[in-house]
Amino acid sequence: MRLQLICVSYLMVLLVFEIAADDESYRALKFGGTVGDYVRFKPDMQAFTDGFSICSWIRKLRSGTGPHWFSYASKIHDNEISLTDDGGVNWLFQADRVNARSAAGVSIGEWYHFCLCWSVSSRAGVVYHNGRQTGSFSTPTGRRLALNGYLVLGQEQDNYGGGFDSSQSFGGELFKLNIFSKKLAGTEVSEMYSAGRCSDVEKEHDDTRQLKWEQILLQPRTGNVRTVREMCTVERKLHLVEVRLAEKQKELESTQSDLRETKSGREDIMDQLNRTTINLEKKSSELDVVKSNLEVTTGQLTQMKTQFGQAQAELSQTKRDLEEAGNRLNETLADLELKEDELQEIKAGLSGSDCFKVANSSHWDVLYTAPFFDKVLTAEMLEILNRSWEKLEYFKGIQVTETFIDFFKTYFP
Prior knowledge:
Blueprint (H helix, E strand, L loop, with lengths): L1 H21 L4 E5 L6 E4 L9 E9 L8 E6 L7 E4 L5 E3 L3 E3 L2 H4 L6 E9 L4 E6 L2 E7 L11 E4 L19 E8 L5 H10 L13 E3 L1 H4 L4 E2 L2 E5 L2 H30 L1 H88 L28 H14 L9 H10 L2
Helix pairs in contact: 1-5, 1-6, 5-6
């Protein structure tokens, strides 16, 4: 009995980790029944141009033949792919379709499995309900799936990305919708259905499962579209427990047989079980440490986020300061350009024929200026020269610059 309890405990620990990893993928999408309830996005459909298989578990919850659960519209054709939840409309490339309503036998409130499989090489579209072929149709030679289209779940597009009609709103549930980049064989479709909603059989085709249910669950939803937990989570846990228990039961039976045959064998088994118990306790302690470290890391990330925000604000202020400095620099450059122009004009004036040559000038060259040149020297002129030289006495020790000379020309003309 103790041996059985230890094995069950060990199994439960394994199941907690295994189920937690994929719980989200075991959720269904439940749609409201109005035109405002849908999932719309533009997936990359390049992988499906030459062939595809659209497979999903569907639960019809509204009466009537109009509800559409899948609509792919290109800019040219709004009915590139159009599918209803009763099997009546299986429309491909705007004109090629088959009505499989009677053969499908869909009942309201019950889950069923659906697949539409097609390839450009076969020119054939095949419809399956619950693993059985319920219809087929032909497509034109060379016709391929159009790209850059909108995929809408829960509504039917009457124009590119919109044009919804309330009578065609889905209002049901979808689960494990996957699109494969090849035309699945009938045996493969049958295998998916027979394995049941709670299996992972679709993952065996991951090399061609290009648009996955896990990705679709992450797409933006509009209106009353929400995820609901499927019974698969519980069923899958129970199934795994049953499988593991059955395996362990066989091991126990074999172990009990060995224990009856030899005492040493029993002691070895008990030793192994004890080590297993110790390992389980150790793993539990390690999990506590991991949880503690995760909390610390979360706090550090929060702090880093705050610091990052502060750094962004400082960078923004620095950018503004640099922009202001750049503006001032541009203004200074403009002023320098003006000063340079003025300097060039002064240089040009100095080099004219009417100006005296500064390099060869002396203090007598003042007589070349307008008040004295070509005039009769008078006592009044001499008085002006004397007063000017006397004023210079007060500025001994001052460097003679252009500004210095301009000062005398301005205030002592």
